[in-house]
Specification:
329 residues, six-stranded parallel β-sheet, alpha/beta, single chain, 10 strands, Alpha-Beta Plaits, Helix Hairpins, Rossmann fold
Length: 329
């Protein structure tokens, strides 16, 4: 609205200049350029001498120009100042409000970098309503984050203060998705120094650097280019398998998803085998694998396989059924 008022005031100023120029031209018979010059020095009130002595009509015109230009000039300046002051206040208020929301987060993820990979990660987390904070220092990327309404901090992710403000002490995990592997290493080292037990998922631009990132403290390392290349090769070799994986891992019109659910320490299913648990019967899910608390993974488990506290079950089913099952577990 203020920008519209500013445009209007500038348009009125142009009209005043045009009216003054034509007024001097017709009333005082002054050449057109000299009339324009008279109008400019009158509006600016610089105090230069008149080109020629003015008649009474010319002086009335001058008074009108001075009064109108001072009024519109004062109004324009007030609008500009209001835009600047309100914009700064809104920016600071918005920043404080954002930081307050971030400080209240628990069990969330911290995503460092909002490039092509970071953007996809954030959109996936947002789609599943999983809390996260983005740390990004590039102004254009920050603007894109704000437009999407994601919580963010415009800071350097390699700085420990940024991670602390993002709530690393209460975070569920950290994702380093900046384009430079060297910066990813710095972020991992800083994060591990602040919180040694935090889960860190790191992106690498070169698969050869995976070992360095692991040694720095990354829990898992993903190479988007390597995964992308392998996936394209699988599409060529096993298109039906890829279609099935897409069907199971990405939301489809069938509503089927591949999901994991953890058996809680107080679950009544602890000690029961898969038949006794009635997971397939009650929720219509297909149990693909069970990851034991020890880390051992059992694929296509037998019906006699027993569930233990802390076990993670990998299943395929409909979203609503999986939610109901997770509550039981």
């Amino acid at each position: 609205m203020d920008f519209k008022k500013l445009r209007t005031s500038l348009a009125v100023l142009i009209i005043i200049m045009a009216s003054g120029t034509l007024g001097y031209y017709f009333i005082e018979q002054i050449p057109l350029f000299d009339s324009f010059y008279m109008t400019v020095i009158t509006i600016s009130t610089v105090g230069f001498f008149e080109i020629k002595p003015l008649s009474s009509a010319g002086r009335i015109l001058t008074i009108f120009i001075i009064a109108a230009s001072i009024s519109i000039g004062t109004y324009s300046i007030s609008v500009i100042m209001r835009v600047m002051v309100e914009g700064e206040m809104q920016r600071r208020f918005g920043k404080r409000k954002m930081e307050k929301k971030i400080s209240k987060l628990k069990n969330h993820f911290i995503v460092c970098g909002f490039g092509r990979i970071g953007k996809i990660i954030c959109e996936e987390l947002h789609a599943d309503q999983i809390a996260f904070v983005v740390i990004e220092q590039e102004p254009s990327a920050v603007q894109s984050i704000e437009e999407k309404g994601f919580l963010s901090l415009q800071m350097d992710a390699t700085d420990g203060e940024a991670l602390i403000k993002a709530g690393i002490m209460n975070a569920r995990g950290l994702v380093t998705a900046v384009s430079s592997d060297a910066n990813n290493v710095f972020i991992i080292l800083t994060a591990k120094e602040l919180r040694p037990d935090i889960f860190i998922l790191s992106r690498t631009s070169d698969a050869k650097n995976e070992g360095q990132l692991i040694r720095a403290g990354a829990s898992r390392v993903v190479s988007p280019y390597l995964i992308g290349g392998r996936r394209m090769a699988q599409v060529l070799k096993r298109p039906t398998v890829v279609d099935f994986i897409d069907l199971a891992t990405i939301d489809s019109h069938l509503g089927l998803v591949l999901e994991e659910a953890k058996v809680g320490p107080g679950s009544h299913l602890i000690g029961k085998n898969l038949i006794e648990s009635k997971l397939r019967k009650d929720f219509g899910v297909i149990i693909v694998a069970i990851k034991k608390l020890s880390g051992e993974m059992t694929f296509n488990p037998m019906p006699s396989e027993r569930l233990g506290g802390g076990d993670v079950i990998v299943v395929i089913g409909k979203k609503n059924d999986l939610k109901r099952m997770a509550e039981v577990l």
